[in-house]
Write a structure and sequence with these properties.
By secondary structure, the chain is mostly helical. Helix content is 62%, strand content 5%. The longest helix has 32 residues.
């Protein structure tokens, strides 16, 4: 495998392509004597490339081969590895995911054979099979070796996808059960006289009891002991305690083969201060008199696993009724909430954002929410009494205690978080619940979870998304007053003290709890129907407001809307009867300034939020134009007609903004839209259609006012830039060209005067001061720019483009599309410019150089002073300009021969370029992601600040609100900026190769 000095070998390139991060080291290992017989076999390299960490898998394989005794053992392993795909996938999969199991195989070189043959019964082993696997263990050291051998088979099934996460967790719990039994047997063999005195039951708690164990976790247990055959109870309990302690040491102690896992008995009555073993009567007495709420919560998962199973079952049967009475205890729900908060408060500050188990949005949030609901409702519904989180969640959904959509989202999030936890622990078989910070670790974990394109970014995004879902749903379930009402089973309402209310509001994210309390008092006081309805809604609304970056603004805006509409019967019915309307209103009012400002100018638009999908779905251009033209016909004069058109525009902007916000935040019935591209397409299409309809109505109003039914010249409006590309944002100007053609027998001067008067009046009316947002009409992309005439005839355009058009003008015409006015004239204009924007011979070298020169000049001259270029989403590296110029250069070069490229839309062009083989799938994906993200940022800035911007806000609350729109929770604005920089950096790299790097 030698190569010419200074040049990369073909093997080096292949290794990079197969996912190796250190190809040089991998080449050396492949050139070594251990792999001499198979190093050229493509099957091996392909299989290594499919693992979570090809470098780690290759190193582990070489170590395993080195550990084989003699050439025969090595050859047998290699032959089996190459010939048997199941073994190859399992063995290399484990070696690429677990450094600790690779170490085990290097020490116990024959254990790889445990992965060779799988019978049907081996695919889902239970306690019996694991007991058989541990049967030959005679001491703690051999028990550890046998345990690791069994663990090897579980990990192999896990990383290969033979088992899904809940099955893996159940297998780990079954292996723990078999291990506890084996350890107790060793302890009894060492002290037969103690074993003869007592009955000892080992009851699993926590994840082991719930049949959902991790790879490395404390195994929580409680011991129950009784005297045998009339033996003295005190002596029997001391004997049982010695056996229990010995069993714990066998599992926990460090030996030459390391440890298995700690056995933790601290969930027993009185914790560490209580006796290790109690009789059943003593347990019962403790729980009846002294146990705290959390101790009953822990008993949800109690399950006999080892020792005297009959005694263990008696223990569970005796205490289970007490579990389901716990919800009747005073302050039950607050006690559980306090316990959860205490757990979060005890997490070191530096670890909160990386805590997969205990942090906000982590595994414990799901488990606490499920257990709380089980304890509240399980006393009357036995179907809820499962110790396994996912089974209990399924039962809660089936019984109607949790919405099916909520349950599905929690199930999906919990499975992802548990899979992530498994992969983290599997690497070194260490007990940890912290997500690593290093890119190498994140890359390995991301690849192991199937995220291959950009595993680091993909893993972080998926983790944050799922954690956000968990946090939102957990808080909703956690704070809903219904839980208190059901738990206490008492009529009437509980009233928080003012101090407690302020504390609750601060916890929910309100910056000014005193003002929030004043708003609540104004909204909920009195005996009116309005106050009664709002009292019912406010507890839920507060939670929805708290799920935003600015809860205070949400509550204040709700009060303003309520003051404006509170006496309107349909508004009260909407709040009372349309649950979706209340949630949608809460989302819209707390997401920024734009949507509330649009709504408060005409509060009756709140009705749109209660019509289900139909009310929020943006309307088509045809429907919008029909409504606008009808309003224009009814109006008395052009000014009133345009006021009506602008009012429709304001309402439809609100509809689009509300759809966008609700899609970004998600609702109880529908999760947040994970595809940023889908949201920017929705907004771009809706705002562009609305702008076209507004222009059509304004044109009709101005023509009717000045000339009656017919203008003396045919007149068309051509959309340019983002308008023509169906990509307008909330704050975008409408870039246009105006074209006219005198009617038969009309003097050209008269026609030109009429066309210019139409344009001037349209622009004046659309920008006139009003309660409605103005529509700026920009014609600067016309021939000769601002120096040229505002309106030209079709013949004038033809003459100009034939003789004088510059390359930038042809470039700009790529986005030209008829949007309003005479359709035939618009079609003929498009036919005129097609040869210019889609040149049959493509672009000459001089034109390419000129486009590159213009782009470079724009980068150096147009960026505002004091702006961080890396965070400028339009002109910065990897921003909108980079992507669009790259795409448009491809169009200018190839659209004449590739019809799919003849579109004004950026994302469609990217897809067509990939389909035509002009750009790789990876490069197209990178550019598409960067463009969608940058466009999403622009939309978010406008929604949050109420004015357009191309950079991230400097104000921390505004920045947090932009992050919330983009799916980042509180405190993660920095992550958003890091992701943007990374995404833009990758896009810039593609742009430099495709735009500047080609011939």
């Amino acid at each position: 495998m030698t190569s010419v000095p200074g040049r990369r070998s073909s093997t080096f390139t292949r290794l990079l392509r197969h996912g190796f991060t250190d190809p040089s080291a991998a080449e050396r290992l492949l050139d070594g004597p251990e792999l001499a017989a198979v190093r050229d076999d493509p099957v091996l390299l392909e299989a290594l490339g499919g693992t979570a960490d090809p470098d780690l898998a290759l190193l582990g394989l070489v170590r395993l081969l080195e550990a084989q005794t003699g050439t025969t053992g090595r050859q047998e392993l290699l032959d089996t590895l190459i010939a048997a795909k199941p073994l190859r996938d399992r063995l290399l999969g484990v070696l690429g995911a677990s450094e600790a199991l690779a170490d085990h195989l290097a020490r116990h070189a024959d254990d790889w054979q445990a992965l060779v043959t799988y019978e049907a019964r081996d695919l889902h082993p239970g306690v019996t099979e694991f007991e058989h696997g541990l049967a030959e263990a005679t001491d703690p050291v051999s028990l550890r070796v046998a345990y690791r051998r069994c663990l090897l088979s579980i990990a192999a099934r896990d990383v290969c996808g033979t088992t899904e996460v809940s099955e893996t967790a159940a297998e780990l719990a079954d292996l723990a059960t078999a291990t506890l039994r084996a350890a107790l047997a060793l302890a009894e063999a060492d002290a037969p006289e103690d074993a003869a005195l007592c009955r000892l039951a080992v009851v699993a708690m926590g994840k082991c009891g719930g049949h959902e164990l991790n790879y490395v976790s404390d195994v929580d247990v409680i011991f129950v002991g009784e005297a045998v055959n009339g033996a003295d109870e005190d002596k029997a309990l001391r004997a049982a305690a010695r056996l229990a302690a010995h069993m714990m040491r066998i599992c926990s102690a460090n030996t030459v083969e390391g440890t298995i896992w700690p056995v933790d008995a601290n969930l027993r009555p009185e914790g560490r201060n209580g006796p290790l073993v109690r009789t059943l009567a003593s347990h019962r007495a403790y729980y009846q008199r002294w146990a705290k709420t959390w101790e009953f919560q822990a008993l949800l998962k109690a399950r006999p696993v080892a020792g005297d199973l009959a005694l263990g079952e008696e223990y569970v049967a005796a205490l289970r009724p007490l579990v389901w009475q716990a919800a009747e205890r005073e302050n039950f729900v607050p006690d559980v909430q306090k316990m959860r908060r205490r757990v979060i408060d005890n997490i070191p500050t530096a670890e909160v954002d990386r805590q997969l188990k205990l942090g906000p949005g982590g595994l414990r949030d799901v488990e606490f929410a499920v257990q709380l609901l089980q304890l509240v409702h399980g006393r009357a519904d036995a179907s809820l009494r499962s110790g396994t989180t996912l089974d209990a969640l399924k039962a809660l959904a089936a019984g109607g205690y949790v919405g099916r959509a909520d349950a599905a989202q929690l199930d999906d999030a919990y499975r992802f978080l548990r899979s992530l936890e498994h992969r983290i622990q599997l690497f070194r078989l260490r007990r940890t619940h912290l997500v690593p910070e290093g890119d190498a670790d994140l890359r390995r974990i991301g690849r192991s979870l199937g995220l291959r394109t950009d595993p680091v970014t993909g893993l972080t995004r998926e983790w944050r998304r799922h954690a956000s879902v968990v946090r939102r749903l957990h808080e909703k379930l956690f704070y809903r007053p219904l839980l208190d009402a059901v738990a206490q089973l008492a009529p009437g309402e509980a009233r928080l003290s003012a101090a407690a209310a302020r504390e609750r509001l601060v916890a929910l994210g309100y910056a000014d709890p005193a003002a929030a309390l004043r708003h609540l008092e104004a909204l909920a006081s009195g005996v009116t129907r309005k106050a009664a309805i709002q009292r019912t809604l406010l507890p839920v609304l507060l939670g929805w407001f708290a799920d935003s970056a600015d809860p205070d603004a949400g509550l204040l805006n709700f009060r303003k809307v309520s003051d404006a509409l509170g006496k309107t019967p349909w508004y009260l019915r909407l709040l009372r009867d349309e649950g979706v309307a209340a949630e949608n209103l809460a989302r819209v009012l707390s997401a920024g300034r734009l949507a509330p400002d649009l709504l408060l100018r005409a509060p009756e638009a709140v009705a749109l939020l209660g019509d289900g999908d139909g009310g929020l779905r943006p309307r088509t251009r045809a429907h919008l134009e029909q409504e606008v033209l009808a309003a224009v016909r009814r109006a008395d004069g052009a000014p009133q007609a345009v006021v009506a058109a602008r009012g429709i525009r304001r309402r439809e902007l609100f509809r689009t903004a509300a759809t966008d916000i609700i899609g970004s935040y998600g609702t109880e019935s529908q999760p947040a839209e994970a595809d940023q591209g889908a949201l920017v397409d929705l907004v771009g299409g809706a705002v562009s259609d609305l702008t076209a309809a507004t222009l059509a109505g304004t044109l009709r109003a101005v023509v009717r006012e000045g000339w009656g039914d017919d203008l003396p010249t045919r007149f068309a409006i051509i959309g340019m830039g983002r308008f023509g590309g169906h990509e307008l944002g909330y704050g975008s100007d409408a870039d246009v060209l105006f074209v006219h053609e005198p009617r038969d027998g009309v003097d050209e001067r008269e026609a030109a005067d009429a066309a210019n008067k139409v344009v001037a009046e349209m622009r004046r009316l659309l920008q006139a001061p009003s309660a409605d947002p103005p529509l700026i009409v920009d014609a600067d992309l016309r021939p000769e720019g601002r120096s040229g005439p505002l309106v030209r005839t079709l013949k004038s355009y033809e003459a100009y483009y034939r003789r004088w058009s510059l390359v930038w003008e042809r470039h700009a015409l790529l986005r030209a599309e008829h949007v309003a006015g005479d359709e035939d004239l618009g079609r003929r204009f498009t036919e005129l410019i097609d040869p210019l924007r889609y040149p049959p011979a493509g672009l000459g070298e001089d034109d390419v150089r000129e486009i590159r020169r213009l782009k470079a000049r724009m980068e150096s001259e147009r960026l505002p002073r004091g702006t961080d270029p890396k965070l400028h989403v339009k002109l910065g590296p990897g921003g909108l300009s980079d992507v669009e110029w790259t795409v448009q250069l491809i169009q200018l070069r190839h659209a004449a021969h590739e019809p799919g490229l003849r579109t004004t839309r950026t994302r469609e062009t990217l897809a067509a370029a990939h389909a035509a083989g002009l750009i790789s799938a990876d490069d197209a994906g990178i550019l598409d992601e960067a463009w969608a993200l940058a466009t999403g940022v622009r939309n978010a800035v406008m929604l949050v600040r109420g004015r357009a911007g191309d950079t991230f806000p400097a104000d921390p609350r505004d920045l947090a609100a932009v992050g919330r729109y983009l799916g980042y929770g509180a405190g993660h604005a920095g992550d958003m900026l890091d992701v943007y920089r990374r995404t833009a950096r990758r896009a810039r790299g593609v742009m430099e190769e495709l735009f500047y790097g080609g011939p």
